[in-house]
Design a protein that fits this description.
Strand order of the largest sheet: 1-2-3-4-5-6
Number of strands: 6
Number of helices: 13
Distance between the termini: 90 Å
Protein name: F-box domain-containing protein
InterPro entries: AN11006-like (IPR038883)
Strand content: 5-15%
Oligomer: single chain
Shape: elongated
Length: 304
């Protein structure tokens, strides 16, 4: 009897095998969407003596509300960039981006009022570049629902700049990297600039023996660019950039350049790569057209 009771006691103290364990992916996966990054208020302390933070909170509540909407729209538009300053210039489906937006309450302004919501989302989405396909390793990289597909249609309508980053998964492209209706590109009516960043060129001799097929990734990349330009006809400029190891005369860059030319897009080459030399003649022609008396930069001429 004693042995039986002891075993029962041990059995009752032992953890149940049916208890659900939290997986690693659940711990690191963001629970808040891009529309809900305003931090949820914490439960007030039950202590009789308020902390410094609680004192500050009480003083803040007693302050008169600033009539923000009574300011001219020109002044409000100067305040919005200060609020969004902590956000990275390129927004991607990336846990680091989520953490930054949440930590600094970057998108909390979306919840103030309907008018501020309309103004804030238009400013935020029109002044940042949004990556079409995620590049962060893991389930983000392999997801079939990139960031654009997760945004509401009226958010996508305010976007003016997109980025297509090529190179990740060059030997085995993710299945989610497909230009289709679910991606939501058709709603990006105001996009004017497409930035194409190339991380590597698999046609280089260093990749020999590791390629999925000869020229396979180059054709895959050209197909993505072709699909984006078909769905977003409002794009005026295709701006190319790459790591220093990527040659402009390689198969990768040549194929992408041919696609952009076929659609009649203005080509931009990032000066840091030394690729802007071929735009010198375009710049000189523009000076002759607009007049030598005007101060024109190459970026203004090339990018509109």
């Amino acid at each position: 009897m004693h042995a039986t009771n002891g075993s029962r006691a041990k059995k009752s103290l032992a953890p149940s095998k049916k208890a659900r364990r939290t997986s690693t992916s659940e711990v690191f996966q963001p629970k808040l969407s891009i529309m809900s990054y305003a931090r949820i208020p914490e439960t007030p302390s039950s202590s009789a003596y308020p902390t410094e933070d609680e004192d500050d909170s009480i003083q803040t509540k007693n302050r008169p509300t600033f009539p923000f909407l009574s300011l001219p729209s020109e002044l409000r538009n100067k305040i919005y960039p200060l609020v969004f300053a902590a956000a990275p210039p390129v927004i991607d489906l990336d846990p680091h981006t989520f953490a930054t937006l949440h930590r600094y309450k970057v998108l909390a302004l979306f919840r103030v009022s309907r008018q501020v919501h309309r103004e804030a989302i238009h400013y935020f989405f029109s002044t940042h570049t949004f990556r079409i396909f995620p590049t962060f390793p893991g389930h983000y990289f392999k997801t079939k629902r990139p960031l654009l597909a997760r945004l509401p249609a009226h958010y996508r309508a305010s976007i003016t700049s997109l980025e297509l980053r090529l190179g990740p998964g060059w030997n085995d492209p993710p299945q989610g990297w497909v230009v289709n209706d679910a991606l939501g590109l058709a709603d990006c009516l105001n996009v004017r600039v497409l930035k194409v960043f190339v991380e590597c060129d698999p046609s280089d001799a260093i990749f020999k023996g590791f390629r999925m097929t000869e020229g396979g990734y180059e054709r895959f990349s050209a197909g993505l660019l072709d699909g984006v330009l078909k769905v977003v006809p409002g794009i005026k400029v295709v701006e190319f950039d790459a790591y220093s190891s990527v040659k402009r005369t390689g198969d990768m860059m040549s194929g992408l350049e041919n696609v952009a030319k076929r659609f009649g897009k203005i080509l931009g080459w990032v000066p840091e790569r030394g690729w802007e030399k071929e735009s010198d003649q375009t710049w000189l022609d523009a000076v002759l057209i607009h007049g030598a008396g005007k101060r024109l930069s190459k970026s203004v001429v090339i990018f509109g």
